[in-house]
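Table 4 source record.
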Amino acid sequence: MGNRGCIHRDREIVRAWNSRHWIACALEFKGWVAPKWVPGRWTALFFYDEAVALAAGHRPCALCRREDYNAYRSAAELRGAAEIDARLHAERLDGRAKRIHKLPWSELPAGTFVEMRGTAHVVLDDGLRPWSAQSGYGSDVARPSRGDACVLTPPTSVRAIERGYRVHIARNSR
């Protein structure tokens, strides 16, 4: 589950974010249930898996996912949430649009998201898996071995994954 602050009015999403703190939370934490559509409260967002949340520019929550947060912070080699959030905010947005990064295919770790031929794909060790919000993950396809990829996951998260952060990727949905 993700959080970008209060981004709704009634049941309509009215802004993409209201804070630089884009966090990915656990669905359950000590019996607590996230508020949904409560006026003036943060808006719960739901992600297919952690790889999608990281590609969207979120980081693990320091409260409900403390172990993951500490592992991410350590792998990203950053001091704390404020530094992580400032770095991710600069990397995930180009004005109000999604920022795309270029990296060689050979340097991409499994768990990174890329765009190829107009479709988002998660990088696997030996291939790519297309993803859509409507149908989840599709069937694996070959991973290019040369050239640059259009990377959707912010560089800070790519580096964290490269340095050992274990990103959760859901099983193939088909």
